[in-house]
Amino acid sequence: MLIQASALFLTAMIDWDALEQEFQFTAPGPNKVVWVESPNINDRPEGVKIDTIVLHHTASSNLAGTVKWFTMPESQVSAHFTIGQDGSIVQQVSCLKRAWHAGQSTDYLGRKGVNDFSIGIEIVNKGDGTEPYTEPQMRAVELLCKVLVTWYPIQQITSHEFIADPEGRKNDPIDYPWERLESLGVPLIYGRKSERKPPQG
After folding, report:
1. Of all helices (H) and strands (E), which one includes residue 3?
2. Which pLDDT score, from 0 to 100, does residue 197 have?
3. CA neighbor of 166 nearest in space, from 5, 3, 4, 55
4. Greatest CA separation for the chain
């Protein structure tokens, strides 16, 4: 949806600290999950198989501000999970529902509308290449992905950068250490389409 793409481009103009101040939120702590519902959802297409995880960065260092943004209907954006720098995990959309995180998108199999069959994970990070991911944060990403791979027939973990249309529209999650996810045994698809060969088999 074009409105979703436009909303994502507006994130650079958001006052994340102001959003945090008007929002009563307590981070649950490393590897703990709290539910904060987002209205920005809809049903997945009937019969769709949830087989993809998409990793993003938030373009903000502020977990509470990001969570608040995803609760606002005018943002037209959501994700299933957001992971804070302390390893807190915030779920805002049921995995059975369609979150609005990928925008216009095509995966390596040529399937369009990646929101239809994916679970979106946002990682709190400024996204400018200057802020390293924290160890608790990376452990939480690994744990969450491990659980999701157990629950769903996941056939790829991909970057927003790879699936975003047109190519170059997104770069997230910038500088993520993908090798940390190799033990999951799932194809890792990241970078840009023109710079990467699709997995074999």
Report:
1. helix 2-9
2. 63
3. 5
4. 49
Q: Determine the Cα angle at 99 with ends 33 and 149, to 5°.
A: 60
- Residue-level pLDDT at 16: 54
Report pLDDT for 6.
40
Total structural domains within the chain: 1
15 lies in some domain:
yes
What's the pTM value of the predicted model, to 2 decimals?
0.90
Residue 52 lies in a domain: yes
Query: CA-CA distances (angstroms) from residue 24 to 3, 20, 165, 177?
Result: 28, 8, 35, 32
Which range marks the domain in which residue 71 is found? 2-23+30-194
Q: What CATH number corresponds to the domain at position 53? A: 3.40.80.10
User: How confident is the model at residue 198, as a pLDDT?
Assistant: 61
User: Which residue stretches of the chain have pLDDT < 50?
Assistant: 1-10, 200-201
Look at residue 12 in the predicted model and tell me its pLDDT. 55
User: Could you tell me if residue 106 is inside a domain?
Assistant: yes
CA distance 22 to 59: 20
Per-residue confidence (pLDDT) for residue 196, from 0 to 100: 72
User: Would 95 be classed as within a structural domain?
Assistant: yes
Which of 37, 74, 122, 167 does the annotation list as catalytic?
A: 122
Instruction: Decide if 122 is catalytic.
Output: yes
Tokens for 185?
Answer: 């045994």
